[in-house]
Each structure stands twice: as structure tokens, then as C-alpha cells.
């Protein structure tokens, strides 16, 4: 009879521990990336009664395991681009400075005072490193953003699509290098565009269009080649000929571009020809002439006003970091003031065969254990680690309704085990009363 007391006590201990697990789940219902746990019960068998047919008597219950449930949590949208959420089985990898490596599902990242991306504990987010061309190197390390700049790129192509008014009269180009631009009346139409040298210095380049004959125009390119003053010069597209050679543009009778050439028309005509302008920016410290192709393809000569249909160039100045973005592949990119987007690193995710055996260490962190096995590292979207979503956080996977049901069941089980103990006590009292 006394064994029923200890059986009841085992039920009290086990259900009390189960209530602790349920309470921890409920307490963390709003903890980002939290994974609920479940108390798994097992019976205790410690006595066998012999006889014609052996009988096994249980001695109660115990908690055999507290299982971590790594089911997917709901993704919630945020305004922080470094808030990251995983859809899948992976874990973010964070490194304690001069300490161990941890794993987490909580993606509340930010930039610390030293320019590194860290979690709320100050641990460094780990990612695949990238070279200057944005290619993954395979090395895993910290993500450093401080002082990140976008290098300038020299312009080597100007694309200009214009409509030149076929009703214009012919004009005579007249220009002398110096401090002033060509005066009105020496050209029919002009346009300007800012280009960049190899150091990122901006330069305004002008193109003047002069009608020289029916269906024939000249394009004269003028720019300032002095960094300390004003000295406008015209580009000579053929230094081997006398004078400053412009670009000749020819149209057919329908107003479509038929040929672009410098000294001699093409045979057959070539409307896709791109003459090259050699620009002298030595006054800015650029030692070699900067060669820039001029693309006039698709220009027209219709009976409508002179107009720029499209104009662009492919250079840009140096840029400072103004924003950070992260795509579903975990690629962290910097957005710069010069309009460029540069890949910086790619978030690395870890996956475990037995993730439920990871060791909880608090602060939403896990440590690898012998039972969990070693991690498999991969980029988001590969080897089953899942995808990464920016401006998102994974909510706790705690189901409050389910936890309350478990709480009620544990409470009733606790009460029932108390009744076993009190009933046993009453039976012992009756036994003592026999003596009386």
C-alpha cells in the first residue's frame, strides 16, 4: 500500500515539471524566434510479482524528455531592413567575440558602433564573404559596413537619341576654344549631359547639332578641360585630318538614321557606328585621355521640333552608404548615394539533423551538442536551410490555445495524484484503527 504514496508523488513531480514547461512556453509567447517545448511522460516499472502468471506493477511516472518543437513561426513585417526571418529549418549563425559560435532563429539584427552587424547580445552575424565584384568567396566571417563606399566608374559611353527638325535651315558652325561656349546662330540645336572621369569628377559635355545640307547634320562635342578655370574645347574625332573633325549624321528621305561617320561615309551606310571622343581630363589628375563612345543610334529627322528622346551615360561618381537591403537569397547589399547597389556578403544558415537536441543557453541562443550532430552550412535557398526574408521577424511558435489545454490536463492530473495520496492516507488510517 505504501507504494501508492510514492506513485502519487511521482505524478505530482512529473505534472509539476510539465506545468513549468507550459509556463515557460506561455511566458515566451511574444519572444521573437522562440520555439516551444513539450514535456514527454514515461511510466516507471520497478516491481514484478511472481506466481503462476507474473504480474508487473508500475511505480508511477516521470518526465523522460523535454522536447523542443521547431515548427515554423508566423512571419511578421517590420520597418527595419536588418530584421531577418527564416522560412525553413535553418539557423542564423552568430559569433561571440573571442568566444563560441551560437545558433539562433531570432533575426533582430542591427549595426553596432564599430560598423558590424550584430544581434541584441552584441554577437556578430556570420556570412559568406564577397569579393569586389560581388562574387561569393566561400569564406565565412563578420559583416562589416562601416566606411563602405562605392568606387567611381569612368564614363565610356554616351547614348543620345534625338529628333532633329527637318524644317531647320542650314547653319555654319563657328567656335573658338576659350572661356565661352558657342553663340546662338552657329548651331541649330544643343544638348548637354554630365559624365564622370576615373576619379569620379563630374564634367558637363555639350553636343551641338548643325544642319549642313538636306538630310545631313554635324554633331560637335564641346567640354571644359580645365579644373581651375573655364576653357571650352571641341573634340577632334579624327586627329589625322586638318582642323577639328566633327561627327556627320545622315538621314534617309523618310527621316530615319542612315549613316554615322567621321570623315568618309560608310559603304554600305552604318547607322550603328559609334565614334570615339578622346577627352583630356589631365587638369584633374587623370593622366590618360578618357575615350568615350558616342551612340546616336535611333536618332531621327522628322518635321517636328528638335528634342532629346533619350539620353544616358554609364559612369558615376563615388558614393557613400545610405541603406542596406537583404534579398531572399540572404545577399546583403549596400545602396549608395551614387545610385549604385553593391553586394557585401551573403547570410550563412546552419542546419542540424537533430535540431531538437541543441542546447538552450538563453537569450534565444542555442549551442551545438553531441546529440544534435554538427551543423551543415549553406546559403539561403540551398541544402534545405530555408529562405531569408528581410523586414520580417519570426514570431514564437507557441499556440496559446494548445498550451491552455495542456495546462488544464496537467492541473487535473496533479489533482488526481493528490487524491491518490489522500486516499492512501485514509486507508492507512483505517488500518491503524484496527489496532484500536
From TrEMBL:
Q: What are the alphabetically sorted keywords of the record?
A: Bacterial flagellum, Cell projection, Cilium, Flagellum
Tagged with keyword Transcription regulation = no
Enumerate the InterPro entries for this protein: Falgellar_hook_FlgE_sf, Flag_bb_rod_N, Flagellar_basal_body_rod_CS, Flagellar_FlgE/F/G, Flg_bb/hook_C_dom, FlgE/F/G-like, FlgE_D2, LlgE_F_G-like_D1
Q: Where is the Flagellar basal-body/hook protein C-terminal domain?
A: 392-434
The biological processes this protein is annotated with in GO are: bacterial-type flagellum-dependent swarming motility
Domain Flagellar basal body rod protein N-terminal positions: 7-35
Which residues are in the Flagellar hook protein FlgE/F/G-like D1 domain? Answer: 85-132
Q: What is this protein called?
A: Flagellar hook protein FlgE
Amino acid at each position: 500500500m505504501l507504494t501508492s504514496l510514492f506513485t502519487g508523488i511521482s505524478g505530482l513531480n512529473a505534472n509539476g515539471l510539465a506545468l513549468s514547461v507550459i509556463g515557460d512556453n506561455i511566458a515566451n509567447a511574444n519572444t521573437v524566434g522562440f520555439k516551444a517545448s513539450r514535456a514527454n511522460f514515461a511510466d516507471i516499472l520497478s516491481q514484478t510479482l511472481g506466481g503462476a502468471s507474473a504480474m508487473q506493477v508500475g511505480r508511477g511516472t516521470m518526465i523522460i524528455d523535454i522536447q523542443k518543437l521547431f515548427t515554423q513561426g508566423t512571419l511578421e513585417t517590420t520597418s527595419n531592413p536588418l530584421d531577418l526571418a527564416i522560412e525553413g529549418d535553418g539557423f542564423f549563425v552568430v559569433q561571440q567575440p573571442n568566444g563560441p559560435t551560437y545558433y539562433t532563429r531570432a533575426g533582430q539584427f542591427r549595426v553596432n558602433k564599430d560598423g558590424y552587424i550584430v544581434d541584441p547580445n552584441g554577437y556578430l552575424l556570420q556570412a559568406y564573404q564577397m569579393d569586389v565584384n560581388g562574387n561569393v568567396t566561400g569564406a565565412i566571417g563578420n559583416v562589416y559596413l562601416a566606411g563602405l563606399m562605392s568606387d567611381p566608374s569612368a564614363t565610356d559611353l554616351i547614348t543620345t537619341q534625338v529628333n532633329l527638325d527637318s524644317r531647320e535651315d542650314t547653319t555654319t558652325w563657328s567656335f573658338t576654344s576659350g572661356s565661352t561656349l558657342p553663340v546662338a546662330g552657329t548651331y541649330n540645336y544643343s544638348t548637354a549631359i554630365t559624365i564622370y572621369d576615373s576619379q569620379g569628377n563630374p564634367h558637363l559635355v555639350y553636343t551641338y547639332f548643325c544642319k549642313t545640307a538636306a538630310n545631313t547634320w554635324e554633331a560637335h562635342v564641346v567640354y571644359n578641360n580645365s579644373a581651375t578655370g573655364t576653357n571650352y574645347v571641341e573634340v577632334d574625332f579624327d586627329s589625322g585630318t586638318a582642323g577639328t573633325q566633327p561627327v556627320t549624321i545622315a538621314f534617309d528621305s523618310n527621316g530615319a538614321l542612315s549613316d554615322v561617320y567621321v570623315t568618309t561615309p560608310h559603304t554600305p551606310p552604318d547607322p550603328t557606328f559609334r565614334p570615339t571622343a578622346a577627352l583630356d581630363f589631365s587638369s584633374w589628375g587623370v593622366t590618360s585621355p578618357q575615350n568615350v563612345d558616342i551612340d546616336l543610334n535611333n536618332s531621327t529627322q522628322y518635321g517636328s521640333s528638335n528634342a532629346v528622346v533619350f539620353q544616358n551615360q554609364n559612369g558615376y561618381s563615388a558614393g557613400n552608404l545610405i541603406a542596406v537591403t537583404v534579398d531572399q537569397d540572404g545577399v546583403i547589399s549596400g545602396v549608395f548615394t551614387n545610385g549604385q547597389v553593391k553586394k557585401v556578403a551573403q547570410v550563412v544558415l546552419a542546419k542540424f539533423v537533430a535540431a531538437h537536441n541543441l542546447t538552450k543557453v538563453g537569450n534565444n541562443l542555442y549551442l551545438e551538442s553531441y546529440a544534435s550532430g554538427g551543423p551543415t552550412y549553406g546559403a539561403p535557398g540551398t541544402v534545405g536551410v530555408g529562405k531569408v526574408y528581410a523586414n520580417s521577424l519570426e514570431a514564437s511558435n507557441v499556440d496559446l490555445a494548445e498550451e491552455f489545454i495542456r495546462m488544464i490536463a496537467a492541473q487535473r492530473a496533479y489533482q488526481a495524484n493528490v487524491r491518490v495520496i489522500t486516499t492512501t492516507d485514509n486507508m492507512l488510517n483505517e488500518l491503524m484503527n484496527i489496532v484500536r
